Amino acid sequence: MCGIVGMIGQDLTVKRLIDALKKLEYRGYDSAGVAFCDRNGLNVRKAAGRISVLENSLGDEIESNILQGIAHTRWATHGGPSDFNAHPHTDCTGKIAVVHNGIVENFDRLREQLEMNGHVFKSATDTEVIAHLVEDHYKGDLVAALRHTLVDLEGAYAIGVIHQDQPDVIVAARKGSPLVVGCTNGSGYMASDVTPLLRYLRDVQFIEDGELACIRSGRVEIFRLDGSAVVKSPTKITWSEDSAEKGGYPHFMIKEIFEEPQTLRNAITGRIRKGLPYFRELEPLKETIEKAGSITVLACGTSFHAGLVFQRFLQDYAEIRVDIDVASEFRYKNLVLKEDDIVVAISQSGETADTLEGIRKARRCGAKIVSLTNVVGSTISRESDAVIYINAGPEIGVAATKTYVAQLSVLLLMGAGLAMIRKPGNGEIFQLVNEIEGMPTVFENVLSSADEQCQRLAREYYQFRHFMYMGRGYSYPTALEGALKLKEISYIHATGYQAGELKHGPIALLDRDFPVFAIIPEDGLKSKTLSNIMETRARDARVVAICSVDDREVSKIVNSRIEVPKVSPPLYPLVMSPFLQLFAYYVAVARGYDPDKPRNLAKSVTVE
Ligand code: AGP
Predict the structure, then answer these.
(1) How far does the centroid of ligand 1 lie from the alpha carbon of residue 397, in Å?
(2) Residue 401 near ligand 1, beta carbon < 6 Å
(3) Per-domain boundaries in the chain
């Protein structure tokens, strides 16, 4: 989605503002722009395309010293990608500039009123109405002008505003889109997330819905819509800046895959005590969870696949009924939830609109929300009854990799914890917890072999236009996730199916141009999947298998294979993840695509 950043204070140049904006590129965008005040007043520069296009249009101006500035990467929602639809947007006087992430749902009515009052619009965007409303409300106090403007706005927003006549402030506000602020001696900052700020500060404040911030050099004040002051203690961000850089890898995606051993350590640290799972965050809900008759899980995309593994694990080991839904369906259903039912929301960004609306609806039914997220202070985390951070660090690649691995490890531990409460004395759980604890080392030992195997396999298969991933049991979510990885970064039509479903239709697709990726670990369903492989080979389809190491049965009947270490069945989705991620990565690179910025996709889907 869109990204906004604002900076104010000493030694500020246009270049530093642009460099901060570049840290938001991963959010996906189609145009970019900056507005800044210097001694001559307000300047606005914007352009469709990549930030490099904007930089070229700035020329020598990029080295200019400025008093403050705001910048924006736009993901078009109203009005196509173009120079004039790019943000920042200005008012009629040309003294006010606005950047915005979100959607003004009532913009057409507001625009009509503003035009009737003589305002002249220069763009087809919803955002421009904000600039004209601030103009109408401005009487010398920019905070008051924005506060009155927000009363008229319906929809979601994270807004940054500057005024030529008040170059000592940047005013910001949020409702439904993330916004973080902070300051150091002599400087002030605002942004859609912490990534652009890591170079300058560690202590940040997350703005809540209905709050505004007045950012000055060295000071940030936060207010509610009624003007009352908000005292908000800072949150310490431990991410180092280079953890958001590529660290020598060609792409963020492969860097983040190779971070997975450390990611796993961070995810499970402090969550295993004396061989048992321990979640301090769940203490307040312990009794409610123990008494829960069922658990509901909601998520989107990769997070949904992690939820499917969690569901199966809970049903196998805690013997509790688990309902699961993609959030875009869940939020429009008639929910059969009652007071104190448990809903688990999984969202690495913590900002996915469908998941956020899903938990809001569940809360209105009286359910208790446990969210699993990667972003401290994200909206979903702040609207939950308990939050479990997966501590995966910033994930810049659009395709979820290390965050999926972190989600799985935490969910398996949570499941084991619940199983021990509901089925005490099950020795198998101790074994599983012990295996999970050893996973970082397993990943360390397996990644270089995985890299070599997947590079070889990608060279064999990167030119195919279709792929069918199939698996049973815990391997069904793995099939879905493997297919999603391949399709979202290599644009190959890849689909995931329950292996047992092939004969009910999908097998009609198979021929020598439609290879099958069989997820077939050493588990209780292997013989069934072997039969499915024979069925597909009989249709002349090539079969790639991801199987347990040294599996002779499988290696005899498939065209190619990737071998993974032997683990307990519930851990195969976890241990197979880097292999399927690396395969998709190398296929995408072989096809000449940028795996970090896949077309049409954004890292965080903050609008419907
Ligand atoms: C996964 O590779 C995709 N980037 C996408 O499906 C993602 O998992 C989905 O949008 C959910 O995001 P969230 O975990 O931040 O809610």
Answers:
(1) 11
(2) no
(3) 3-244, 250-437, 444-608
